[in-house]
Design goal:
The protein has helices at residues 2-34, 36-47, 52-67, 70-96, 99-105, 110-143, 251-258, 268-277, 283-307, 319-341, 350-370; strands at 158-164, 170-177, 182-184, 187-191, 197-202, 205-209, 214-218, 221-227, 234-236, 240-241, 244-246. The protein is α+β, with helices and mostly antiparallel strands. Strands 1, 2, 3, 4, 5, 6, 7, 8, 9, 10 and 11 form an 11-stranded antiparallel sheet that branches. A hairpin with a 4-residue loop joins strand 2 and strand 3 (182-184). Helix 10 (319-341) runs antiparallel to helix 11. The protein starts with a helix and ends with a helix.
Length: 374
């Protein structure tokens, strides 16, 4: 039995790697061909008037620099679907060589044969969690780049418009660099409950301090402002030096205000920090993304259990028809479930709405495995 398990695990793992590489290479080549003009512009700047070979090398270098980090994004989004495809290829190979018949003749249940497939799927989902926690956040500034930024090492710095924090303090800055998390010429406008400015804190540069939850100011100044009883009477006091300003407006939160898709690149620990200090951002959306990391794993496993009987069977089956059915069922479950998970359902707790697809799939998965003919 150990040899059987090892054989299935090895074959499915190899098939998963092959399918993943093929999908990534195909997607990268299509993207490269469609946006070849942008890559060529960046290559011309890099080659600096060199020959044709220098230009070709520059295009390859730029393409690898732009498409390479996307391997972690592709894994995060498609690992469940690719795992089902790897199971289908492995089981189809075993069915063509009549291995299932030999196993049943030896008294081995097909449900026992299905166990290694599920184990590999669980391992693939575990790697996806590690990828989401440690890899995607590190390459997020690279994934935010558009094709016009292919020559840059990260997404370009962007200006920060007036953004309120949880204390209703407004932040404005010349630019924020998502790669380094540094603010240039930030200004914090502290307001009272009536919305009037009572203090202005400004600096040349600022660096985020995640431990103390605030910005370390370089050349920071704080100026008190008071408003008298008379109309248009405002008194500004001499500025004082200040080195730190406490606020929940972290680089992650400011980047989210600029790029909505950035939320999908954050790890669980970063989501936890934002949930503990969140001010004006959608807290329910943060919770849905947090729960979705685990709901996705359950949904992938249940989808695997539902489609396994299409291939792991003692009956004669048309492989092409079963493959089409498997693809249709898997795509509907995984993409439809992902859409439902991140969709707000009024009146329903966030955790219940996120796990609703997995809860709905659970009895179907049990029924499919119980009805497996073995």
């Amino acid at each position: 039995m150990s040899k059987l398990t090892k054989s299935i695990v090895t074959r499915m793992t190899v098939n998963f790697i092959i399918l993943f590489v093929l999908l990534f290479v195909l997607g990268s080549m299509i993207d490269l061909i469609v946006n070849l003009e942008e890559f060529d512009k960046a290559a011309v700047m890099m080659a600096e008037g060199g020959g044709i070979f220098a230009r070709i090398y520059a295009i390859i270098y730029v393409a690898f620099g732009f498409e390479g980090p996307r391997v972690f994004q592709v894994y995060a989004y498609f690992h469940g679907l690719i795992a089902i495809g790897a199971m289908g290829f492995t089981a189809a190979q075993m069915w063509k060589s009549s291995e299932f018949v030999a196993m049943m003749a030896a008294g081995i249940s097909l449900r026992r044969v299905a166990t290694p497939f599920v184990a590999v799927a669980c391992s693939i989902s575990g790697v996806a969690l590690l990828n989401q926690e440690f890899m995607l956040p590190n390459v997020a500034p690279l994934l935010l780049r558009s094709h016009s930024d292919v020559a840059n090492d990260s997404v370009q710095a962007f200006p920060v418009p007036f953004t309120p924090d949880r204390n209703n303090t407004l932040l404005i800055a010349s630019s924020l660099d998502p790669a380094t998390g540094n603010l240039s010429y930030p200004t914090f406008l502290i307001r009272n409950k009536d919305g009037q400015m009572i203090q202005r804190v400004y600096a040349n540069n600022a660096t985020w301090d995640g431990i103390n939850v605030g910005w370390l100011l370089e050349g920071g100044k704080s100026a008190q402002i008071t408003t008298g009883d008379e109309v248009n009477r405002v008194t500004a006091y001499a500025p004082e030096d200040v080195e730190f300003f406490e606020t929940d407006l972290s680089p992650h939160l400011l980047t989210l205000h600029r790029y909505g898709q950035y939320l999908g690149f954050l790890g669980i620990s970063q989501l936890n920090q934002m949930l503990n200090t969140v001010g004006t951002f959608d807290i329910e959306l943060l919770k849905r993304h947090w729960y979705a990391r685990f709901s996705t794993i359950a949904m992938n496993i249940f989808a695997m259990l539902i489609v396994i009987p299409l291939f792991v069977t003692k009956e004669q089956i048309p492989i092409v028809r079963q493959s089409v059915r498997c693809a249709a069922i898997s795509i509907t479950i995984l993409f439809g479930g992902s859409f439902i998970m991140l969709m707000a359902m009024p009146g329903i707790p966030t955790i219940a709405s996120v796990f609703f697809p997995a809860i709905l799939l659970f009895p179907f998965a049990l029924a499919r495995m119980a009805a497996m003919k073995t």
